[in-house]
Amino acid sequence: MKMDTQNMNKPKVSIIIPVYNVEQYVEQCISSACNQTYKDIEIIVVDDGSTDNSGIICDRLSQNDSRIKVIHKKNGGLVSARKAGLDNSTGDFIYPLDGDDWIDSETIQVLLEDAYKYDSDVVLSGLIQEYHDHRIEIKEFFNGAFDLSDYNSKIYKNFFVKEDSNLERGLRCNLCSRLFKKEVIFHAQMNVDDNIVNGEDDACFFEALLSSQRIYFDDGVYYHYRMRDTSLSKQNRKENLDQLAILEQTISDSVKQHKMYSVLGNQLSRYMLIRFNSYLSRKYGNSFRPHYYFPYDLIKPNSKIIIYGMGAVGTSYLRQILENEYCDVVAVVDKNRQGSLWGKEIHKINTIKDVHFDYIVLAAYYDEVLNQMMDEVIDLVGTEKIICRKAKKSEFFYQLS
Q1: Distance CA 206, CA 84 (A)
Q2: Which residues in 289-318 are b (16+ Cβ under 10 Å) and which e?
Q3: Residues of the chain with CATH 3.90.550.10
Q4: Is 167 helix (H, G, I), strand (E, B) or coil?
Q5: Dist CA 288 CA 96 (whole Å)
Q6: Can you identify the CATH homologous superfamily of domain 290-400?
Q7: Which of 213, 332, 333, 397 has its CA 20 to 30 A from that of 386?
Q8: pLDDT tens for each residue of 204-251
Q9: In 3D, which of 244, 264, 249 has the Cα closest to residue 163?
């Protein structure tokens, strides 16, 4: 649906871009904002005390487009940079964009049309994780419009944690790839403690949604999230209990005042357990993880297998087989993970053509991920050796790994 600009005031959208030491990427980021098909935008770039040439590049780009406003400030972290951007914004809607990412040219046009068509305070869309040698599409598990005044909305049942799981988060809480009405995100962001550097998106996102009346999930993917370890949203991660306490206090203050506290309060406790579990994993190398049932019925005993995917499913499979010796794991492969696990070196996918095996087991929980994995291996090994089944998760048993 195209916006009827004859019958409404044309809204302004503020694209807020925090920048810190991203001289390699910031021009692509800002250019993607400038090249939007929807033109009534302002681009607020907040240079958070960069020590490289990022600030100089931003200033140069602003000379070529009057819609770009550059703010230079002392380094204070992602939260303070976003607050500075909001304080200087004049738009009716806010679209957060990290300085090392980029967006498709139709992004603002599409999401703004969604906002008006469905009278939504927040429009949520998917994103593409961009690695140096491949990409992964991440879509929302909801689709369409939701009225949050409906006490029976499935949104509340899956808000912090999925209703059918104890260790899986609910709504994806990235601020990026979402379009917010300014009044919704402004108050939420200003309530976030500047000292939060682990969960800063969560703190703002959840409060923004709790103050919304209607939201819309667009099934498109327009945001390109560059996967690297030194981005502003990943720098100086503080894995300590103080961070968890600040995050819990920030979110719980909003939850306790919400009409759905009876549902959300219990979910928040489960969500904080997930965060604590993540803390254990990073701090000590151990955490409780879901147990996924290995597809024994599809694989003969003593077979030589490759496990493709070393996420939660793959690591669960590997641990089971190493313990019960049902078959012989001749290789484990993963596109993103490197190193070794329990004595097994993790290889890249293209190495499987040099390995003698009976089956390759695709280890994933989501159908879209399984489909991508199938497309990647089918040309390498053919279909007869591929075991492709959505992982089945135990609701009772967990592994300490």
Answers
A1: 20
A2: bbbbbbbeeebeeebebbbbbbbbbbbbbb
A3: 13-282
A4: coil
A5: 33
A6: NAD(P)-binding Rossmann-like Domain (3.40.50.720)
A7: 397
A8: 999 999 999 999 999 999 999 998 765 544 444 555 777 888 888 889
A9: 264
Residue 131 makes CB contacts below 8 A (sequence gap 6+) with 227, 335, 336
Question: Count of alpha carbons within 13 Å of 323, Cβ hemisphere only?
Answer: 9
| % of the chain surpassing 90 pLDDT | 59
What beta strand segments (E) does 227-333 contain? 288-293, 304-308, 328-333
Return left, alpha or beta for 243; rule: phi > 0 is left, psi -120 to 50 is alpha, else beta: alpha
Answer yes or no: are the C-beta atoms of 20 and 58 closer than 8 Å.
no
Neighbours of 252 (CB within 10 A): 16
pLDDT of residue 167: 64
State the DSSP code for 166.
Answer: S
As a whole number of angstroms, the distance between CA 40 and CA 92 comes to 11
**CATH 3.40.50.720 location in the chain:** 290-400
- Token output for 199: 């969960």
**8 Å CB contact between 34 and 8:** no
- Domain 13-282 fold is Spore Coat Polysaccharide Biosynthesis Protein SpsA; Chain A (3.90.550)
pLDDT of residue 38: 97
